[in-house]
TrEMBL record:
Keywords: Cell outer membrane, Membrane, Signal. Its main location: membrane. One of its GO terms (cellular component) is cell outer membrane. It comes from Methylocaldum marinum. InterPro entries: Beta-barrel_TonB_sf. This is Phosphate-selective porin O and P.
Length: 406
């Protein structure tokens, strides 16, 4: 019923807009069936996760198969400048994702070209994919991720935020301008966030399993992109501005207000056989109410990554990924004293190496090894001992995923 409710909620946004766009284009009767283009695609990915200690995506200390992604997506282009697209997804990732079936996105995209097609202006509405950083709007499929597990300093999968980060219900304005070898993109989004999914409410309030409802003004998001030579070099600046009110639904838990600002800087260079990527961002969060004095913290995350394409079928990735819960306390000492927790709960440093092989058409296997110092991005739902001061600060993770697409 939750999935049906979300589909209905999205249609209330997308359908009136679609009708308006059709009327602007001359009405449905003006459509030429010979120009209608539709596509249907899907994917099925099964992962295996093993950790030497701590747990990721289920009971991984003994090996876990609790990492599954199955999706079907389709698109219909009714006019050259009018596109409808949607994706339904089943995802299981242990304690990090308990949503099962969900509507990942369902959006209508209308655009127009100007200045001899050098400038494109457009609008997307519905359940819209969130354009943030280099990988957020392509993170849904392992084929379009650089690794099985994205850098967790920037893209919070293990903390149960995947669904809240991938899409939101609202509208997005975008522009693209081409000038020789240069392209400039601007995007601005206003939307109602999915902060009732996964562990988003607990993450924002700082209280695990917080029972209540998030309300307040919509999410504001912007992204500016510069590309050179068709994406050989890319520079981005993304920013999320969130201002939400938490209305408690449980006795003993006070209501409160959360304000968060998340700027992210991204750089990438793509040569014929190799790519270099780096992203750096911080999250400034202010919490007030909750029966406490206002608390303001600034976490930070960054990674550097190299990819090498060994052949058409083989590629490798090497990455160093760092997260600090407080950029003014990178050792975690002050936070540990204040929260009566071990220092390793407030940082994570992850050195990862991976290999992927597209062994036949539309089939891929990807494997990666992570050596991790710290536990800041581990899910307490998979690691209940973290809440009691437990957890191993030094641990290893091995991940394997087999995927098919059509």
């Amino acid at each position: 019923m939750g999935l049906i409710r979300r589909i209905v909620d999205t249609r209330t946004v997308a359908c009136p807009l679609a009708a308006a766009l059709l009327s602007l284009s001359g009405g449905a009767e003006a459509l030429d069936s010979s120009t209608i283009d539709w596509q249907l695609h899907g994917f099925a990915s099964q992962g295996f996760t093993y950790t030497t200690s701590n747990q990721v995506f289920g009971a991984s200390r003994g090996g876990s198969l609790d990492f599954t992604e199955i999706g079907v997506n389709g698109s219909v282009r009714l006019l050259p400048n009018l596109l409808f697209s949607a994706q339904g997804l089943f995802r299981n990732a242990g304690g990090s994702d308990r949503e099962d079936f969900r509507l990942d996105f369902a959006q209508v995209d209308y655009n127009g070209t100007f200045l001899d097609s050098a400038l494109t202006l457009g609008l997307r509405a519905g359940r819209v994919k969130i354009p943030f950083g280099l990988y957020n709007d392509t993170r849904d499929v392992v084929w379009t991720r650089p690794s099985v597990i994205l850098p967790q300093s920037v893209y919070y999968d293990t903390l149960g935020l995947r669904q809240a980060m991938i899409s939101a219900d609202g509208g997005l304005l975008y522009s693209r301008y081409n000038w020789g070898d240069h392209r400039f993109n601007l995007e601005f989004m206003v939307a109602e966030p999915q902060d009732d999914t996964g562990d988003a409410t607990g993450f924002l309030t700082g209280r695990l399993d917080a029972s209540g409802r998030m309300e307040g003004r919509p999410l504001f998001l912007g992204r500016a992109v510069y590309e050179w030579m068709g994406g050989r070099a890319r520079a981005m600046f993304s920013v999320v501005d969130l201002d939400r009110d938490f209305n408690s639904g449980a006795p003993g838990l006070e209501s409160g207000k959360i304000q968060a600002l998340y700027p992210l800087f991204s750089l990438q260079y793509n040569a014929e056989r190799w790519s270099l990527t780096a992203e750096y961002g911080w999250v400034n969060t202010r919490r007030s109410g909750f029966g406490d004095v206002p608390v303001e913290t600034t976490s930070e995350g960054f990674y550097v990554q190299g990819e090498y394409r060994l052949s058409e079928d083989w590629s490798a990735v090497l990455r160093y990924d760092v997260f600090h819960a407080d950029r003014d306390d990178r050792s975690g000492r002050s936070l540990a004293r204040r929260n009566n927790q071990p220092r390793h709960r407030f940082y994570a440093r992850d050195l990862a190496v991976g290999l992927r092989w597209e062994f036949v058409s539309n089939w891929m296997v990807a494997a990666e090894y992570h050596n991790v110092d710290g536990t800041a991005w581990l899910s307490p739902h998979d690691n209940s001992d973290l809440l009691k001061g437990g957890g191993d600060p030094h641990w290893d993770l091995f991940s394997l995923m087999v995927s098919f697409r059509f």
